[in-house]
Design brief:
single chain; 10 helices; 5-stranded mixed β-sheet; alpha+beta
Length: about 375
């Protein structure tokens, strides 16, 4: 009569079949990394270490099979034919091993090349997960690092540009209020002095007055470039009109401005970025493009605004790196979450487009 062991509480254990030893199960537990499994099945689920081990094992098995199933053999003492067979077999083993390992490590080479091509000023580019477990983990970590770097760079660019604009505003105000007022006072004093001078000295004083007036005008222009007061007083559309008028030279280049109103409500940060991008685009076109026509357009689009600066000049130089002006525009756009595109074709000019969506439109 058999005896049945019982658990505390009187419940008999349920009968379960004994699990037999399975080499496949042992290999699977040894090959597959613990934790969450990647979606790719089979060979790609193995770690890089075990993949290299398998590749070398396959090469050795193949070499042994060839020696066992073919007439090839090596005898002692060796002959020339035996040496040829041995060298040929060794060459096959080395080439096969190199090819299989090349396939195994190909994803690492692609990962290195993709990592070199990433540009933080062109956000959104991410690496596609492929390869073995380790490579997939490295790609995932690298993409997470890109997310963090882009967030931190956007925040730091925003703080830097806000501080820069605040400093521009302060310097422009000091130039206009302090230096401008002092020069105006000097002009008034010179005018009062002029009435008491003999006629032969008045011409010299008049030339000094003209020099002071030209200096006052130049300071006013510098203060305007540092921070256009019309942008704060009358808005972006009027500021762009004043910008186009200040740089227009009908005899050399034709500048067309198109503003489609009403524009959505934009914050002061977005307005100053749009103004600076238009200013930099106009400046670059006038200095380097050798264009005959420049077109500036500002219109509402998809709840935000779309700015374009297009010229019919010679296009950008075919260089690997962008100039400081273009990189500055990209940094300004990133500081407010805008999307900047720069397109250039030889003999067809440059198109600079900036899309900005206010936070309310995103919500």
């Amino acid at each position: 009569m058999g005896v049945t062991a019982s658990r505390p509480g009187g419940a008999a254990p349920s009968a379960q079949p004994a699990r037999r030893f399975s080499p496949i199960r042992v290999l699977r537990s040894a090959f597959v990394l613990r934790g969450r499994r990647p979606p790719e099945p089979g060979y790609k689920r193995l770690s890089l270490y075990w993949r290299v081990v398998i590749v070398n094992a396959l090469v050795l098995v193949l070499a042994t099979t060839l020696l066992a199933t073919t007439p090839a053999h090596v005898s002692l003492p060796g002959t020339v034919e035996d040496a040829i067979v041995l060298v040929a077999g060794l060459a096959v083993v080395i080439v096969t091993n190199a090819v299989l390992l090349r396939v195994t490590f190909k994803s690492l080479a692609g990962l290195a090349a993709a990592m070199r091509s990433v540009d933080l000023l062109k956000p959104g580019a991410r690496l596609r997960r492929s390869g073995g477990v380790e490579v997939r983990q490295v790609i995932g970590t690298f993409n997470e690092m890109l997310d963090r770097l882009e967030r931190e760079r956007t925040q730091s660019n925003r703080r830097a540009h806000l501080a820069r604009e605040a400093e521009r505003r302060r310097i422009g105000r000091e130039l206009h209020d302090e230096v401008g007022q002092r020069l105006t006072g000097i002009l008034l004093q010179l005018e009062r002095t002029r009435t008491h001078l003999p006629p032969e000295l008045r011409d010299n004083l008049a030339r000094t007055q003209e020099l002071v007036r030209s200096t006052l005008d130049e300071i006013g222009a510098i203060a305007w470039r540092l921070r256009p007061g019309i942008l704060d007083d009358l808005g972006l559309a009027k500021a762009l009109e004043a910008l186009v008028q200040s740089v227009s030279d009908p005899a050399r280049v034709r500048i067309l401005l198109g503003v489609a109103e009403p524009l959505p409500a934009l914050g002061p940060d977005a307005e100053i970025v749009l103004y600076r991008v238009a200013q930099e685009g106009l400046t670059n076109a006038l200095r380097h493009a050798r264009a005959t026509e420049i077109r500036v357009e500002l219109r509402p689009q998809d709840g935000g605004v779309h700015l374009e600066v297009v010229d019919d000049g010679c296009g950008l130089a075919a260089t690997d790196t962008e100039g400081e002006g273009l990189r500055g525009m990209r940094e300004r756009a990133l500081s407010i979450g805008g999307h900047l595109q720069i397109e250039s074709r030889a003999a067809d000019g440059v198109r600079i487009s900036l899309d900005i969506v206010p936070p309310a439109a995103v919500d």
